[in-house]
Structure of Pentacotripeptide-repeat region of PRORP domain-containing protein:
Amino acid sequence: MHRASFRLGSIADSIYRFKPHEHVRKQDASKLVFHRALLISSGSEIWGNGAESTAFMQMQIVNALRLGDRSRASNLLMVLGQEKFSLTADNFVRILSYCAKSPDPLFVMETWKIMEERGIFLNNTCSLLMIEALCKGGYLDEAFGLINFLAESHVMFPALPAYNCFLRACAIRQSMVHASQCLDLMDHKMVGKNEATYSELLKSKRFIAEEVYMVLRKDGRCEICIYCTAKDGDFE
């Protein structure tokens, strides 16, 4: 379990250092105390209730990101990470959801790093949001690294939507290498495929159509290839 957490943290660290100039340096303890006091004085009488206080904190972090105040968002994230009560992955869902929609893969890595430091294990919701943010941000190597880690962890396995999200990004960026890696992993882990899996690949306007056709033939489901291609308006 500790080894798995270490490997997961290593992935987070590698991306976190990718653009160090875009990250705010860690603030000293007195500044964190100031931010906590500011939140309390701003009318958050709900402070002290674990679930409600973390929900309020997540809302403040998202608001800061929307306003472009990454320094404040990072400081508040550190305050959240230093809460004394037990935190779970659910306490970070709102932050990760915003990062997936933005997308903001770099703040996802900040959040992931805090979660790893607290020993918080990912759930399916958080892992999918992280993968979505990484894929939309163009971090395909890191997204696949997370999928592969989860697939090998024996703690939590990535759901099919995570693979489909990654394959969609491969199609958009026309990365045959990443798509092949993903399909190989799905075969190795015996992950079932659905119409969405093949449809995402075929959206690339045939740049990997031959690869998809070979997979479908192996699965004995060539009719899906015909249906998806016709549906996307690329039937010949």
User: Anything to note?
Assistant: DSSP finds 13 helices and no strands in the chain. Residues 1-6, 18-30, 40-47, 223-230 have pLDDT under 50 and may be disordered.
